[in-house]
Task: structure prediction
Amino acid sequence: MKIHRINALVIIVVLVTGLWLMITTAAWAVPPVASNAKEPMPSGTPVPPTSNMVLIPAGEFSMGDPYSEGYGTELPVHKVYVSAFYIEKHPTTGTQWKDVYDWATAHGYVFDNTGAAKADGHPVHDVSWYDVVKWLNARSEKEGRTPAYYTDAVQATVYRTEKTDITKDMVKWTSNGYRLPTEAEWEKAARGGLAGQHYPWPSRGGTYSANIDCSKANYVACGKGGTTPVGTYNANGYGLYDMAGNVWEWVWDWYDGGWYSKAGATSGDTRGPDSGSYRINRGGGWTDDANDLRCSGRVNCYDYPYFSDFDLGFRAVLGAGPKGADRRNQPKKRR
Ligand SMILES: [Ca+2]
Result:
């Protein structure tokens, strides 16, 4: 009788185990659900930024040219409040570009240019504003973030193809996806926490040309004949490389030479004019004079959004949320 009870117990255990194995094996046999790029996680889901981004703290800064070296377009100098945001330490590299580009073209994205770079570790160039914005969306989708750019004001259709002149209401500004810096964000980042300097480093007197040399940045006088690897020169006070020189960097804003005199220029987190013909790029490149590398530089700083060139790239930003100072989202400091 006792033996029968044990046998019954063994049979039950074997049956239950078998059933469990069948269920779990069946579950394993189902192929993993393909990530649906069209339904990323909801807006605002906290995702720590990549290790090659730094936090630019919230606060006001002086935007524009305190030396009057850049004609009227950089005047008047005006205060702008900018919320905290993350920005890439260096321009987006060709390697980064290709990685996302290959994923994107396999997931419904269509670009006008393939992008180019001199070698591994060099910045990407020959990318239009449209290409860059689509690429940033693809990077977001690839990482499960909510894309920033849409083809409609209700923000229903992710921008993946064609040439669309995205307007401010077609951008999920508070999404956790990658986007271009605004012109104000870019200049604040370039200044590296310093005020009233010509370049991302401290000035030593004299005009702009007395404050730059080939130990500081890649520009035409150095005769490099091309881009230099990102991070070749010293970082600014925020830990950012190549904010002066190497490649120009596309930003969000439409160009308006008289914008700084308009009321919208001083509104908090200004995103520039509502429309225009050209999109701004900043910081100068390897073919440019020292004047174009100034932090406030707006002299040769605009191109049609379909334009691409051998000295024009970009870098990505991520919003840091309304509180910005959330330490949990900050990359760990290296010791
Ligand atoms: Ca640059």
Summary: Residues 21-42, 323-335 have pLDDT under 50 and may be disordered. Strands lie at 53-56, 59-63, 78-82, 85-88, 248-254, 279-282, 302-303, 312-313, 317-319.
